Amino acid sequence: MLKVIPLGGLGEVGMNTMVVEHAGERLLIDCGLMFPRGDQFGVDVVLPDFTWLKESAEALKGIVLTHAHEDHLGALPWLLREVNVPVYGTAFTLALAKHRLVEAGINADLREMSPRHEFTIGDSFRVEPLRVTHSVPDAVGLSIKTPVASLIHTGDFKLDGMPIDGQITDLERMGELGEEGVSVLLSDSTNSEVAGWTGSETLVKETFERIFGATKGRLVVAMFGSQLHRVRHAIELARQFNRRVLLMGRSLQRNVELAQAVGILEPYKDVLVPFEAAAMIPGSQLLILCTGAQAEPRSALNTLLNPEPGPIRLEPTDTVILSSRVIPGNEVGVSALLNRLLARGVKVITPSQEPGIHVSGHASRDEQRRVLEVVKPRHFMPIHGELRHLHRHLALAKEVGLRDEQLFLTTDGDVLGLDADGARTLGRVPVGQHLMRRDGMAPVTPAALQERRWLAESGVVIAVVVLQLGSGRILNGPVLQGQALQGDEVAALPLATEGARKNLMELSEAMRSDDARVREEITRGVRRVFKQLLGSKPTVIPMVIRLP
Fold this sequence. Notes:
Number of domains: 3
CATH topology of the largest domain: Metallo-beta-lactamase, Chain A
Mean pLDDT: 92
């Protein structure tokens, strides 16, 4: 039996990780991470829980990557620290994966694969990469065949008829595989709520050409660091309009260098300039490509907004193009970024004003319909998305003609089994999430995260009392200091100090010899006053110091 087991990416956007199993052998499709929500303080990344996979590590025969986005390969360093298996990917995908692994001090077995070139993994899996168009170069879907069943996994894709690099999604090969018989289609659901077809990247090039031609001052284009198709046509337009190009943002610079190393981008030695040289170029002759359209605090665009004088800073004569959609959860930050840009006096162009400055890398409903019609799978399982995306994609499959018994709503941990008799759900495996720091090995615990939320929501009061060593005699305090408190809370500190002192004085000297009891009474006194005056309960950190 062929089993399909998602460990992440089905029920959330990101963390895409899926196990395919047959005859005791396992293959992992992608190994992605997810970025934290705003209330997950001190967390850099969210990883799938690999415990179940690592318990039978000898069964894992390889990892196949569909493309070079973090939500598909970013968790590799954490898994490969403990599991040593080959990693397969296209040239650019492996270049980025290698960079991540070298940063983590991991030497992995990386094996390059190419579209339409089939290879085997273990004794069970025949894998054929299928070229797809996406917002990052060198992306593929996968055909995986086993002795009992087969599948097509689209990866992230769109049906762009005029992609910048000429690499269109290989519908022809998908159709051929469909004629041979595909047991189950696993298809990207990200844009299942979006009607029609996703716009072509060529539309962005045409829109940029119009804006570049009409702009006299300095141009700044803020985008995702992985949008190398956009980098390519932006640089070509800079040549056309006699502008030099400065790349700003570590991820953007790194990705361009990796793409040049594998031949996806040319060197552009006649156009690209270093930061020091760019500072000397008149604004009318300079294009800056940078990261920061999502209002990331340490991004290049934020650096350009620095109020301190510097070699390059945004001026009222500049035009800034925010060439990306707003990721859900970033709305407040992006709104604040827009206000800062406008306060600087620059001209700002957003997708709401000029829809052609950004297009998605994911297929919309009519493209998803087309793939279903071409592949004609015996069964269908939507992947990559929240539950609402998966449900909408299932509804589309029913419109195409698939029956209820052919459709499977599968979420993280569910096991789908396929053989000659059909498909069925076989139960669940343990799944979960690990909240991590980029440079950490141990996850942030739920208790630590909850404490950080309390600190963020309530503020902190530090209460210090100095007592005589070996007795309960008060030498000084309690003294209170507040952190992250509002004005009325700061005003309440003197009364809270008296509340803490009152509680302390009600204890006998013998009881004040017990540090734990002293801390408890200080805390109770402070929180009682805040509760009575303001209805709030700040986090209180009591400190007892004993002096001779």
